[in-house]
Specification:
This protein has 139 residues and is an all-alpha fold. It has seven helices and no strands.
């Protein structure tokens, strides 16, 4: 059974493509969660009154997250394509910019468990992709 599952995983050297797929799948679950409830969204935007984190905002966040998941999943299977690689890297830059600005500029989020995950994933992914650029992208 594990051989059949492995056949669906990215078939490339290194772990970055597998990481991209893992983050994409996690983002899909996060999108579903944002469509279903406000509970975890309110954990991120925890420095505003709970009424300010609306169902509309959560659904918008879900679509944004789902869009990033699609780009990252595509990058997992096309990790050597420069355009796809660049687009995936930009999704992490955008995520980092969003979450850090909500924390440092707009003050809608306090640094804590809800914010820590997105900051770590976006930062780690950007650094990893930047450092491995020449390994994966052959221009």
């Amino acid at each position: 059974m594990s051989a059949s599952i492995a056949s669906y995983l990215p078939q490339t050297a290194g772990w970055l493509a597998h990481w991209q797929l893992f983050v994409a799948v996690t983002a899909i679950f996060n999108s579903v969660q944002n469509f279903a409830t406000l509970k975890l969204t309110r954990r991120i935007y925890n420095n505003v009154p709970p009424a300010n984190v609306t169902p509309l905002q959560a659904r918008t966040f879900a679509v944004w997250t789902l869009t990033s998941a699609v780009v990252r999943a595509y990058a997992a299977y096309h990790i050597h394509d420069k355009t796809t690689y660049d687009m995936a890297m930009f999704t992490y830059l955008i995520a980092f910019g969003h979450f850090s600005s909500e924390w440092l500029i707009f003050r809608s989020a306090k640094f804590g468990a809800g914010l820590l995950g997105p900051i770590i994933v976006s930062t780690t992914s950007m650094i990893w992709m930047f450092k491995q650029y020449d390994y994966y992208v052959k221009v």
